Amino acid sequence: MNSKIILLFAVISVSSLSFGQINKGNWIVSGNSILQVSSSKVEGWGSSTTTVVFSPSVGYFVTDGLSVGISASILNTEGSTLYSVLPSASYYFDNQSNIKPFIEVGIGYGGLSEDGESIGGLALGAGAGIMYLINKNIGLNLGFQYLRGDYDGLINNTFGGTIGFSLFF
Question: How far is CA 27 from CA 24, 109, 168, in A?
């Protein structure tokens, strides 16, 4: 029984020392949950909400540490849908450990749909955080994300903390 515990401990230790594949030619697929606070302002009228969103993304490392790809988010609440699709770039700082700080930016299209009517426009996003590499193919992400959408005069600012996983191929 002790040998099985020692073997399990050794496997976990070795896998946590393996570094993620943030090198040129690899793919990254992420899924983050976002606890966000939204603030909307339309000519003297304002509102604020707190929500949870799931945001998938996929990227390709064009050089060591730099991935380009696309991310999306969809929030559906009380008959309204807020969505965005952003071509994006993420940079992972290689510090020779299994904790990788990162920054990300994106620009694309976003929109708001409610009661059968839709408005859309420019969406800008940015984020920062750390990724803890559990092993060479799986990372745990923690960070902050900001998204600004200008949907035909309706300005939506979203800021929140993120948690999720990344898979490397």
Answer: 9, 23, 6
How is the chain split into domains, by residue range?
A: 2-168
Fold of 2-168: Porin (2.40.160)
| Six-digit token string for 154 | 């309706």
Q: Where are the alpha helices (DSSP H) in 39-101?
A: none
Q: Write the pLDDT tens digit of every residue in 22-72.
A: 778 888 888 776 665 555 554 445 566 666 677 889 999 999 999 999 999
Cβ atoms < 10 Å from Cβ of 33: 16
DSSP per-residue letters across 102-129: EEEEEEEEEEEEETTEEEEEEEEEEEEE
Strand-pair partners of 34: 53, 162
DSSP type of residue 96: S
Q: Within 13 Å of residue 141, how many CA atoms lie on the same side as its CB?
A: 29
